[in-house]
């Protein structure tokens, strides 16, 4: 891999993978078009070898226990915080995002490491269970959580560290070894951290990455014991189908088309600021971006005017550690073509762009922050995932109509409702999605205490909270005999008297009334 060129980028567009040769990824800076690195693609054989290597080291990692593993992950946390400028430079170069959007990544990871490090004992520590029947009085019941030995993580390009290491952290804290395949568009930042884990932190060889496009991802699915996939629902289906061949469990975090509902009693300025940030943050390339907004009639005109003014003010372009802008580049050319198609389709069908509405002038692959009105659910921009700096705003009669429209989607990732606290909460509880925010947007992702997962076609499984670490474990129930003679009453040889005794005891404890308990009925 050629590297160390990440900071040298300046202007143009990202074409993502392609390359000098079939076995190389060519990494371009979306904000400049400059080539910043070539990365060797891992063949299926090399994926298998990497998985075998970390698999061999996993038992020792698991044997460190929760505290021992947290100590190592704590060193990773410290490294991320100490080296965040270096990591941010690389990530900005490969994604074209602005500094503020990139800065979330190391701090989220530091918080997540501490969260799972301190909660793991509660979430996956051994459980002692009291038997439900006196027939098991002689047994001790325990449940232990043992990791899937090797977890494969396949990740997208929009948050190269959060959506790869962010899954590796709970998996490793649970005792698994991890192999990550980052997106072909953003292979560099993660590779830098994985190299640091080995070379600078000196961590056990249980964290690795493999590089490539879909073929490498497919090979990883074949080799691992659990697959954590984040990406489009189209690829998610393929991953699940491939995992079915080896009966490998999967967790899928897929796309979204998140609605925001603005009630007439909302603090309108807060709702406007939230819509602008929730819709445009990371150039709208967030699975939980606000993509559709439904506003109650009495406040619609004022909301639209304020939102247009707010979005119109956003500064677009490349920035760095010394400068500050709000809207960065489109990371994947495939995605910017989709954004252009959705906006074009809406405009051709009668919608109006109050600000933005087209690609920005180069150099760099930028799409102008866009507010669309006159939209409806026949348009792609209100139905399919746009994943760009675009929001469509619709006027609704009341909250019932808003809810009907918000829930009229094949996706169900998250959503938000703005309004008077109690009314907004009542409405929010009826939005059909995995997480809903009241008078805020996107914030549920940072509330790692609670699970986050998609309903409908937005996914299967959860990250965060207790389920976010338990999913990396297999349960092993351990049933221990506290006392017993040479044989149990249920063992051979069968006799009529013992058989009758067992049935009478079971009956006495399970029947609802005394007649049945004594065997006088039934
Ligand atoms: P994508 O589905 O194109 O690719 C995701 C990953 O899958 C990449 O690493 C890619 O190389 C790999 N891949 C492609 N084909 C594969 C195959 N056949 N087998 C195995 N792996 C394969 O998605 P993307 O364009 O990188 O990311 C954008 C999508 O991710 C959007 O739909 C977005 O909503 C979604 N996303 C979801 C969440 C979430 O938490 N729900 C978070 C971020 C992004």
Structure description:
It is a single chain. This protein has 17 helices and 20 strands. It has 522 residues and is of the alpha/beta class. It has 3 domains: 10-252 and 467-474, 3-Layer(aba) Sandwich (Aldehyde Dehydrogenase, Chain A, domain 1); 258-457, Aldehyde Dehydrogenase, Chain A, domain 2, CATH 3.40.309; 491-522, no CATH class. The strands form 5 sheets. Strands 12-13-14-11-10-16-17 form a 7-stranded mixed sheet, sandwiched between helices. Strands 7-6-5-8-9-19 form a 6-stranded mixed sheet, with helices on both faces. α3 packs antiparallel against α6, α4 packs parallel to α5 (165-173) and α7 packs parallel to α8. It is globular and about 90 Å long. The termini are far apart.
Q: What is the first-to-last residue Cα distance?
A: 76 Å
- Decide which structural class fits the backbone: alpha/beta
Give me the CATH fold name of the largest domain: Aldehyde Dehydrogenase, Chain A, domain 1
Q: How many domains in all?
A: 3
CATH top level assignment of the largest domain:
Alpha Beta
Q: Helical stretch count?
A: 17
**Overall CATH architecture of the largest domain:** 3-Layer(aba) Sandwich
Q: Can you count the beta strands?
A: 20
Poorly predicted segments: 1-21
- Percent of residues in beta strands? 15-25%
User: What radius of gyration results from the CA coordinates?
Assistant: 27 Å
What is the typical, i.e. mean, pLDDT?
94
* Molecular shape: globular
State the oligomer.
single chain
Bound molecules: nicotinamide-adenine-dinucleotide
